[in-house]
Amino acid sequence: MLEDLSMKTFNKIIIFISMNIVVLVLCTVCLSEPSCTKLLLHEAQYGNYDILIMGQSHAYAGYNPYIVSEKLGGEAMDIARPSTATINHYYMLQEVNLQKKYKTVLFDIDYGYWDRGHSGRAGSDANLLFKLTGVRKIHYFNDVLLDSNYNDVFADYKLSGLGTIKNIPHNLSIKFSKDYRINNPDIFPEVAGFTKEGYYKYGGRGFYMGVDYMKDYYFKPLVYDMDNIKDENNDALIRMVDYCKENGINLICMSSALPPERLKNEEVEGFHNYFVAMCKKLNVPFYDMNYVKGLDRTGKDYIDKEGHMMKNLADKQTELMCQVIKNNNREKYFYTTYEDVLKNLGE
After folding, report:
1. Which CATH class is domain 18-343?
2. Among candidate residues 226, 286, 297, 341, the one with its CA nearest the CA of residue 62
3. Please, which of 19, 96, 223, 247 could form a disulfide with 44 given CB 3.0 to 4.6 Å?
4. Among residues 242, 238, 246, which one has the least CA distance to residue 100?
5. What pTM was estimated for this model as a whole?
6. What are the residues facing 250 on neighbouring strands?
């Protein structure tokens, strides 16, 4: 009798778990957007590239990989994604470098992300669990997701109103297409949602070309609290440095130049000094393009007040950054004080 009850209870548990898995998979397939990261990682891993550009959205809009290729020699690929935790970069770097082909990594540090951890990043482009292969998948689960909430770990989608429901047919049509299944890079503009009327056009190799200004875009100036820097971000950068040294990769850190309005209204000097000191300790070059000379710009050179660049400014920044890397003459290219930076800003 007791054995029968135990078996019935066990069967009910199995059925309950199975039903939850089915619902979870259906919701994830229908509600999560197709992944740009999936396509970018595949292209970076199997394409003929040896220079990697990484970071968040300022990196995908601020550095032209074709100019990097021309000026630095080699072939550059940009796999930067918005809202990507620093620890994710460490795993993405390992994934695309399985063939040990990358010689240079340009890692853009966005000040606005350094006080954010890896949690609260629901959505298919923030969760690498199903995009990594081999032991990296296990390590990522133990290292990153084990202490995250249920939705971040398994659900891999986020609800954002009726728009999420309306996008289901579009999501399914892409996910079940052959191009998406085989990671055809030509499908990237459709996966990323580019339109003829959009603010970006796709330039290839992960490069977002800013073409129009977001008039209705709202951005509140950030308040930087140096006491809230997350140790996990520092630890992830240290692990990236160690990985690059072990694999003969030249790691170069930089920060994309912010709009004049942000530099005048935000205290970025503290963060600048923080990363100068940190990168010096790690023996890694750090080039803060906020401090660079000769990058004349106004707010009209950005698609928004946050700092995503129009293509013309991104090209100028890339050209100047390559000059800086090749010459490594800080006195020639950089202001030494924040006061000098502010004196030479546009409007």
Report:
1. alpha beta
2. 297
3. 96
4. 246
5. 0.91
6. 104
Residue 95's identity, in one-letter code, is E
Sheet holding 104-108, edge to edge: 76-78, 51-54, 104-108, 250-255, 286-288
Q: 134: helix, coil or strand? A: coil
Rounded distance between C-alpha atoms, residue 130 and residue 27, angstroms: 15
Break the chain into its structural domains and give their ranges: 18-343
Region 176-188: mean pLDDT is 94
* Run of H or E including 287: strand 286-288
Our measurement of the distance from residue 85's CA atom to the centroid of its chain's CA atoms, rounded to an integer in Å, reads 7
Mean pLDDT across the stretch 188-211? 89
Largest CA distance in the chain: 86
DSSP codes, 176-215: TSHHHHTT-GGGHHHHTT--TTSSEEE-STT-EEE-S--T
Report which residue type is found at 144.
V
- Cα distance from N-terminal residue to C-terminal residue, the chain: 82
pLDDT tens sequence across 240-291: 999 999 999 999 999 999 999 999 999 899 999 999 999 999 999 999 999 9
**For the chain, percent of residues with pLDDT exceeding 90:** 62
Which of these ranges, 109-113, 184-188, 242-246, has the smallest mean pLDDT? Answer: 109-113
Section 176-200 average pLDDT: 89
| CA separation for the pair 180, 40 (Å, rounded) | 12
Q: How far apart are CA 232 and CA 66, in angstroms?
A: 32
Of 118, 90, 63, whose CA–CA distance to 244 is shortest?
90
In order of 18, 36, 48, the CA distances from 7 in angstroms are 16, 45, 56
